[in-house]
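[step 3/7] inverse_fold.run input=structure_tokens len=301
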């Protein structure tokens, strides 16, 4: 990464540098920090510990800001009424929606077969609500090719949408993504940051442990955060039958206390009403106003 050279050059010039950890898995899946900046900004206390244990960074150099990239979800509102949204994506308006959020190619290079088995498990459930429930499958924007020709209509009230995937970075795509989560009664996935976003919105979040994806679920450090932090975000099942039984007990309400507890610790550890972006900006401004660092006089190893 060229960022390493920027940090080293800053040291030579006496300029302070800051590493802004952008996502929940960056300290565990993106390699080591080879040149340690003056300050590291992380989401939460879990990442502070990762910075120390994995990267040998002094905890006193780490500031916990919360997840500034998710601040907008705390104030977002639906862009259209529920009936309009449901009709637009092609699901029945009189049934609850289960949202399946697909994962990246690193996590699930081949996910279509698993999703089909998951829907078949819902349809074969003795619970009528699961037999008729609407199923919305959202392909991961970096893993959409496998969904190009997939038709779920033979499974009844089920769709793949948006068909070509969508990265929620512009206003329209972000609104559609929010509506997908907001109007769903529960969310299901293997291992993706979208599960955290669904938790921010208050939805119950479910996952199924499988041998097929064990290497990118149980064997990854960041997945453990979803299971354990402040009681964990996920309702975890060891197989499809157990998962269906969990959904059968689901209250289909809009707010899950489990999600709220996780969000308090993992996404907004400085308080639910304290935007992470404010803490982030305040920290950068304090660094900029502080004294310049001593010029090292020689390159870092």
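[step 3/7] decode complete -> sequence:
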């Amino acid at each position: 990464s060229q960022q390493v050279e920027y940090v080293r050059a800053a040291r030579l010039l006496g300029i302070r540098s800051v590493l802004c950890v952008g996502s929940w898995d960056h300290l565990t899946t993106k390699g080591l920090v080879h040149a340690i900046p003056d300050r590291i900004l992380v989401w939460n206390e879990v990442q502070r510990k990762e910075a120390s244990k994995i990267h040998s960074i002094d905890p006193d150099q780490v500031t916990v800001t919360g997840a500034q990239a998710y601040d907008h979800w705390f104030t977002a509102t639906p862009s259209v009424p529920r009936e309009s949204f449901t009709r637009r994506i092609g699901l029945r308006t009189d049934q609850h929606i289960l949202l399946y959020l697909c994962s990246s190619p690193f996590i699930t290079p081949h996910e279509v077969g698993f999703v089909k088995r998951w829907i078949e498990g819902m349809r074969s459930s003795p619970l009528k609500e699961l037999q008729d429930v609407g199923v919305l499958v959202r392909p991961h924007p970096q893993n959409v090719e496998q969904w190009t020709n997939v038709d779920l209509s033979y499974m009844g009230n089920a769709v793949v949408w948006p068909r070509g995937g969508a990265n929620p970075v512009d206003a329209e795509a972000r609104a559609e993504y929010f509506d997908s989560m907001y109007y769903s009664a529960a969310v299901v996935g293997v291992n993706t940051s979208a599960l955290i976003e669904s938790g921010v919105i208050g939805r119950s979040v479910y996952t199924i442990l499988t041998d097929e994806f064990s290497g990118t679920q149980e064997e990854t450090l960041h997945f453990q955060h979803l299971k354990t932090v402040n009681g964990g975000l996920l309702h975890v099942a060891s197989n499809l039958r157990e998962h269906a039984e969990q959904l059968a007990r689901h209250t289909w309400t809009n707010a899950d206390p489990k999600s709220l507890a996780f969000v308090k610790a993992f996404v907004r550890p400085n308080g639910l009403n304290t935007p992470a972006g404010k803490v982030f900006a305040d920290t950068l401004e304090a660094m900029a106003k502080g004294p310049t660092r001593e010029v090292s006089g020689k390159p870092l190893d």
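[step 4/7] annotate
The chain has twelve helices and nine strands.
The longest helix spans residues 276-289.
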